[in-house]
Structure formats: structure tokens, C-alpha cells
Amino acid sequence: MTEKELIALAGARFGKRRPAFLKVGIGDDCAVISFDAKHDLIVTCDTLAEGTHFLKGTAPELLARKLLAVNLSDAAAMAGIPLWGILSLAAPKNVPEAFLKRFMAALGKEAEKYGVSIIGGDSVRGKDLVLTLTLAGKVEKDRALLRSGAKPGDLVVVTGRLGSTFKSGKHLTFEPRLKEARSLARYFSPSAMMDLSDGLLEDGRRMAEASGVTLKLRGADVPLNAGADLKGALTDGEDFELLLCVPKGNWDEKKAERFRKRFKLELTVIGEAAKKSGESLLLDGKAPQGRGYAHF
């Protein structure tokens, strides 16, 4: 069973009971829940598993930073503001006490940096180190940016540079694009947005399939990290930049340049969305070989 099939199975099984307060359920970066007159609640959950997301011996401070950051990146994808988190930790018997103390101290420090309160959780013994955080936040009423809103004619835009994430260590030190996402929402009113966790090809297909369009990307325009090639930028994953679709009428190059200067971050148009035509994603007019990271 692939990850896509597993998510579809979960949606078929759990999506049958859809409470009135649920606006967006399984299949996006966060669930969206009706909260009060001014805001919706957004909720996400991410796991870091030893051997998949980090190597044995990784400093606990880096693990704490990444655990929070991957969840914050999901909140950013919705243009949301993070509020609180719940921690679940499974650790082998031989994990040193000092390691756990350093991890907790670092997680607390990182949470304070982003205005997040850690309010509870669970801890168990396991074969390998597995860290899970559930994060809740808020977004203005009916203003959550989904991956399902792209329309034919929209520009496909990406923040930052992609590829070579594990080699460079960026997968442990990236900055979640929270403030940038809020500004993008104000500047351009995107029709769709998501974060790039499993590679541009894989996540681009997810956005295209959710929106019912085909994303047509231009390989020469994909911005590359130092040491990365196009293949890595398309498939490495763990970039945690933002992928968004912007209606052409909303794109303003002067605003884009102000964004770049304010955040010292690149903002690049890499293609267009088109009417659905067979493949969900095309690269230079052809169906690209390969995919991003697949967990199953």
C-alpha cells in the first residue's frame, strides 16, 4: 500500500462521519475547524522517526527544532498562526537522561520563540526514537489557504531554493515560512498553497490532483540550492518551502520584489496551472520520471 492509498483508505473510512464543525478534513496540510466568529482552528500532526527523518546520533537540540518546525510549516501552508502543541515521545531504554533533558529544554525554547505553548502529551518505551507533535493554530475565518483551490491560468510560484537538503543539513535547520506565508496571503491572495516536504514532483502532483488541474513546470526556472541539481530539487524532499498558485491578475512583480527584500528570500514563478489533461504534472511539456520521497 502506498502512502496515497493509505490516506485514501483513511479518508474513505473516517470521512463518513463529518461533524458540522469540520471544514477541511483528511487530505490537506491541516484540518480546519470552525472556532469562533473571527477565526477557524487549524490542527496538524507530524512525526520524526529515527532512520527516516534523522540519523542516530543527531543532537537533541536539532531534533527539537525540526519537530516543531515541520508542524509550523504545515501551519504556514494554511497562512495560519500557531498556538499550542501536544508532544508524544517513544524512546529506547538506553536513551541517556541527559539527551531527554536537552531535548525538552530545546523544545521549550523553540516553542517560546514562536509563541507556542506545549500543553500535554504522552511518553512510552519503543525500539527506536520516535517523536510526534500535534500542533493547533488559528487563521482568519474562511481564510485558510488549501491545496485544492488552484485554477487553470494560475501562476505556479515557489519560495526559496530547493534540493540537496540532507547533504547540506537544511532538513534540520530550515525556517518555517510563517511570516512569509501571511505576507503572501496579503500580497497575492493565492488560490492554493502547501509546503514542500516530499519533493516538488510529489507535492506538486498532490496540489494538482486536489485542485483538478495540471501543473506545467519549467525546469530551467526551478531555483536550486548550492550543490543541488534539478533532479534533487524535484525529488529530494524536506525543503519545507512554500508552493503556491496565484491568479495572474493578482501577481505584481513590484510586490514580489518587496517580498524578496523584506524576507531576503527568493520568490520564483516556475510554471502555470492548466486545465486537467491526463498527467497531473508536466515538466517542460513531458511527464517527468521519478517521484519525491514515498514512505510506503
Largest sheet strand order: 1-2-3-6-4-5
The proportion of residues forming helix, as a percent range, comes to: 25-40%
Q: Determine the mean pLDDT.
A: 93
Low-confidence stretches: none
Please give the number of β-strands. 12
Q: Kindly, what is the distance between the CA atoms of the first and last residues, rounded to a whole number of angstroms?
A: 7 Å
Instruction: State which percent range the strand residues make up.
Output: 25-35%
Per the CATH scheme, the topology name of the largest domain is Phosphoribosyl-aminoimidazole Synthetase, Chain A, domain 2
Largest sheet entry = 6 strands, mixed
What features would you describe in this structure?
With 296 residues, the chain is α+β, with helices and mostly antiparallel strands. It has 2 domains: 20-140, 60s Ribosomal Protein L30, Chain: A, CATH 3.30.1330; 155-283, Alpha-Beta Complex (Phosphoribosyl-aminoimidazole Synthetase, Chain A, domain 2). It has helices at 3-14, 60-77, 97-113, 165-168, 170-173, 178-188, 200-211, 230-235, 253-263, and strands at residues 22-24, 31-34, 39-49, 81-91, 117-125, 130-140, 155-159, 192-195, 213-217, 242-246, 267-275, 281-283. The strands form 2 sheets. The chain has a 6-stranded mixed sheet with strand order 1-2-3-6-4-5. Helix 3 (97-113) links the parallel strand 4 and strand 5.
